[in-house]
UniProtKB/TrEMBL annotation:
PANTHER family from the UniProt entry: O-ACYLTRANSFERASE (WSD1-LIKE) FAMILY PROTEIN, WAX ESTER SYNTHASE_DIACYLGLYCEROL ACYLTRANSFERASE 4-RELATED
GO cellular component, one term: plasma membrane
Organism annotation: Ceutorhynchus assimilis
Pfam families: WS_DGAT_C
Protein name as catalogued: O-acyltransferase WSD1 C-terminal domain-containing protein
Amino acid sequence: MSCTITTVFIVKTEKEKNIFNDVRLRLKEKIFDEPNWYPKLSHSIHDFGGYAYLLNNNREVDDAVKLMAVPSNVQFDEEYLKTITAEINSSELSINNSLLWYVYVSDKPLQNQGNDNFYRYSIIFRFHHAVGDGTSLVALLIRLLGTESSQNYNEKLFKKLFAGKNSEPGKNRTYKYYLLNMFKFIQFWFTVIFISIGRFQNKNLLEPADKNALHSSKLSGKKTVAWGTEDYPECLNMVKNVKNRLPNATFSIVVATAISNSMTSFFKRNSLPVPDFTTGLMIILLKFPDTVPSKQVRLENKATTLLLDLPSTHKSESLLSALKNVTMQMESQLSYADALVVRFAAAELFGYLPINLGNEIVGFNKQTFILTNVPGGSVIKIFDGCVVEKVIPIAPNLRHAAVSFALLTYDDRFQIGLLVDKALVNSQDEAKKIVDDILESIKVLDKESQLLLD
């Protein structure tokens, strides 16, 4: 099954409208009328002997933009939207004379969305991972659909991450500064050549695949989709509080601890053996997207992956104690040098290897779960007064991954998307419980860390 990235937009508008035509027209103008702007989107992908290549064969907007199929006898609410998303996400995205992306737009508003007199429409975007990483794809969608006021979204989002990188004025730099940076440069590349390559060979090629109740040969590749979105900002600030209260804690460590506790709860709730460690594929962004609104978004996958043995929480006295264990594991296993080695293997070697062999090399068949965290920003306004109310990320769908977690912060609210193999979880309620337990674990971490200050 192709590795794909799915994103769900729920769009709010004050009046009932034909949003399908609006999306179709906008994408036609910005992609198919100017095919050289985004060749990955206007060209089709083909396969020959296990190798993939792009071909320009005059595709049209109707090849990519589809009307969402909603039976007339169902209640089209957000729960049913999850079912549609699961069907789209589990369908095969062929690499033989097909596009690398598709958009599914509803012409009917969602039902059971409260009494605020707004209409809410859904759009499902599905991209092959070769188009770009999750952050680049969010930037692309804003560039394609966003109003002029939203075009500086990327700059606003990433400027705080760029700040301080070169904050020391050049005139104040001494020879000690340059010697220190030279030493760091030599040390880094020594680590890459003599340590990281060996760790890559051991972790990705020699270690056996994960074995637990969530990772077995019984996986079907078909996924149940669930998500949880906050109605108002809460858990994001809690994660920041925990990070600031505890030494060495990072945003990723706090989130990983919450996910570990959620998976541990799943094992216990279903009377399954709880493994001491669960292997996960962490998706790491090495470079941020373009921040210049006047340019087309450069579509490339700037992400890489690292395998992580994430400790379960069942043997810890508290979640704070579990967080310390997670901190030690993540600090020892995740390094920028290791990420560069995996990135080189994926970017430089994949082009010369059959796809299945490449998946084995980067560990795509070893892990129980996938975790991706996409930075988010403020509210996105799109055409004709529409506002994107929810941006729900769905992590790459890999057949051999039982569970995939995707987190995005949007308007200071967590948006969490979950994929779980139907051979293990076929119930929307059980899948939603896994998501809810992540948010609940963050609240527990916030309370426990606050007690340290009292």
